[in-house]
Design goal:
Elements: E1 2-5, E2 11-14, E3 18-22, E4 40-48, E5 52-59, E6 63-70, E7 72-77, E8 82-86, E9 90-94, E10 99-105, E11 111-118, E12 128-132, E13 144-148, E14 157-158, E15 164-170, E16 175-179, E17 185-192, E18 194-197, E19 200-203, E20 207-210, E21 215-220, E22 224-231
Parallel strand pairs: 13-14
Antiparallel strand pairs: 1-20, 2-3, 3-4, 4-11, 5-10, 6-9, 6-11, 7-8, 7-10, 9-12, 13-15, 15-22, 16-21, 17-20, 17-22, 18-19, 18-21
């Protein structure tokens, strides 16, 4: 089953410095049919104006993955971590027992991100933060694991949940496949481009909530950049 969620159907708002679209219920947007998908709780599509951002605020008991699509995001937290994550790269914050952080766009142009929240396997624990570059050339024609709760994914950023966040770049006319484990909940978004997934067309920034499939067959209509969450 593939539930296509066109970008135009997403909730959200224009706050001046922030243009936000929500794939799932978030803040003032509530849709009882779009609360979560398995352990995946939030997928926000944010555009942040230059020299603005999210001032210090708290989180707890959530795995927060930020995928930078354009520009860069600058992070600072109550543990003393500081870092700048730029387009194509990923940062992960395991909020654990509690952490405060800020995220600002200190760049001269608009920064565009996907922010993804996944419930952890268990509450509490020491909060952590980390970031890593993932060159798009390394994901050409295949999915690369960017963040993972599985020990065998040693090159990925660690998260505390039995889930993976993956990225791929697919050239026009190219087809890639992804096996789906039993009982898994997948969510796929083309950051750019347009693809057909098991016969369902997804354009840039559309979402697809996927369940009860055994395999994804993805064909790109044009050059496309994909982000996929595979969660329990």
């Amino acid at each position: 089953m593939i539930d296509r969620r066109p970008f135009a159907s997403l909730g959200g708002g224009d706050h001046g410095w922030l243009k936000a679209k929500h794939h799932f219920s978030f803040a003032e947007y509530y849709d009882p049919k779009r609360v979560s998908h398995g352990a995946l709780r939030v997928w926000n599509d944010d555009e942040i104006a230059p020299n603005s951002g999210f001032p210090p605020h708290p989180h707890a008991d959530m795995e927060i993955i930020t995928y930078v699509r354009e520009g860069a995001i600058t992070h600072q937290d109550s543990l003393g971590n500081k870092g700048r994550t730029e387009a194509g790269d990923v940062q992960v914050m395991s909020a654990g027992s509690g952490i405060r952080h800020s995220e600002y766009n200190l760049e001269p142009g608009t920064t565009r991100i996907f922010q993804i929240w996944i419930h952890p396997d268990r509450p509490g624990g020491q909060p952590t933060w980390g970031a890593k570059p993932f060159p798009k050339t390394d994901r050409s024609g295949r999915f690369v694991t960017l963040a993972s709760g599985f020990a065998e994914d040693a090159d990925a950023l660690p998260i505390r949940t039995q889930a993976r966040v993956l990225g791929a770049t697919v050239k026009a006319g190219e087809t890639i496949e992804y096996p789906v484990g039993e009982g898994r909940h997948l969510y796929l978004v083309p950051a750019t481009g347009s693809v057909e997934v098991n016969g369902v067309t997804l354009d840039a920034r559309d979402g697809a909530a996927i369940s009860d499939e055994t395999k994804l067959t993805i064909t790109a209509s044009v050059d496309s950049e994909l982000v996929l969450v595979d969660a329990a």
